[in-house]
Design brief:
3 domains; two-stranded antiparallel sheet
Length: about 240
Amino acid sequence: MFPTLFPYGIGGFDDKSRPVLISFQKQAEYYLDLEDKAFCHHKYFIFVALNILQRRAAHLHTSLTVKKPHFELVAKKLLGVSAETLKSVATHLEHEGKVSELTAEEKEVYTLLSKVNVISARIPGSQASKLDDRNTLRSYNGYSGVGHIFLTMNPNAAHSPIFQVMVGDKEVDLKARFPQLVEATERAIRLARDPVAAADFFEFSIRMFLTHLLGWDFSKGKSSSQGGVLGHIRAFHGNYE
């Protein structure tokens, strides 16, 4: 699929002949962390890899829940529904079709779907994963108390000298008070060309903020002995958008 990335036809994913097996996700992460930026700079590799991971998660980690009074009825009807009918209803609703336009069999499927809840907490970005994060935050509130400070952080990689060094610019002097950077257009191109470096910069910025400003020790999972500008932190919770 990517002859420029695998010119010899080897090194692909899910190769069962490997002496040590490696998961698809771990191998993709390894390729993106290589010093050779061919994978990072490829226009489609990251999107295709992410799409495969999301589809696998949807197939392997999605389950259905039904209220107890409806369980037997729903179970029988699910066994009698054809894949073609489900696909027809899904296509009709996807194109914002009206329920009144469905056939009697399709309406029965629509009613059946209204009694079934889809659980997909392990799929990043899904509604269930958001509910899972919300429940985690509530658990934090119950154990450590309601949060006192709320922050929204958005470090700008395009204007950061640190990011320019991370993408390979050796001319930037981080010891200078005001390092000289390339033009804004070139900085924007670098940011768009290497999204992996942008993600690394974001994580680096958040970790440095928590470590050096708020005094959090990631190795021990608690506040450091000297604390930070707000004293000793009992716990924190953060979500990525």
